[in-house]
Amino acid sequence: MSGLLKLKTAAELRQIYLRHEMFPTIFCDGCGLGNVLNYTLWALDELQLDLDRTVFVSGIGCSSRLSGYVNADGMHTTHGRALAFASGIKAAQPDLNVIVFTGDGDGSGIGGNHLLHTIRRNMDLTVILVNNFTYGMTGGQVAPTTPIDSFSTTTPYGNIEYPLDICALAQTLGAPYVARWMINQPYPPIKSIAQGIQKRGFALIEMLVPCPTAYGRRNGLKQLETIWQWYRDHTILIDDYEHIMHFGSPEERAALHDKIKIGVFQDYERESFEERWATLVEQVKL
């Protein structure tokens, strides 16, 4: 990541990449969505990506507002349908870079079926999925990723459902690139977003983002430092997790039960839908 030291200043990034008329943002104090946008811009600049050949797509929710801040072509679509629209764009114009902003509710709840089949097809998309454990914009309801025993507007006595591990799902379905990061460490997610954009086929970067307003205040995490510290305390790098599982004491292994693994889970090459489609077209021509 040494190249990052030569990147433009934050002021220069704002001038180049953002729509100034969209500010100030709608994001609450302590929300990490601004960080996600910032890391995405750093990755774009690292790659010197042509914004005229890049489309940003999003669905509905707090995270889905991110596409509107980028000074490039974009689609703010219907709830849960971001991947369907993005797939259509990529199928029609395979030379475009298509980046999707979605949330845990929009992407894995309302849009869960689209997530399954977009990965299965191996569409060449970069999906930045913001996981804040809740349906933040629509009222703080329980989401597919809400931790067990957590409180929400629809689980006032605590959530009894096991949370969905989105990265494990993507791995199982064969996504060529799968990663998860928290937002208080900038360089790993910047690097992952850049790698995801460069990857042929489906790339998923899940970002763990604090939501003090909808999730935090119902779960004793309303104070900003408290909720950010919660993420530090409850995440662990994949390598550290596996080392403890193999060589740790029973007590150390038991302490992993409430840890969320972060890092790059999967990174390999696999022929994309667009490549297979192009091959089929050529065969039909013959």
UniProtKB/TrEMBL annotation:
Protein name: 2-oxoacid:ferredoxin oxidoreductase subunit beta
UniProt-listed Pfam families: TPP_enzyme_C
CDD domains given in the database record: TPP_OGFOR (cd03375)
Positions of the Thiamine pyrophosphate enzyme TPP-binding domain: 60-206
Alphabetical UniProt keywords: Oxidoreductase
Transmembrane segments: none
InterPro entries noted in UniProt: 2-oxoacid:Fd_oxidoreductase, THDP-binding, TPP_enzyme_TPP-bd
UniProt key word Acetylation: no
Gene3D superfamilies: 3.40.50.970
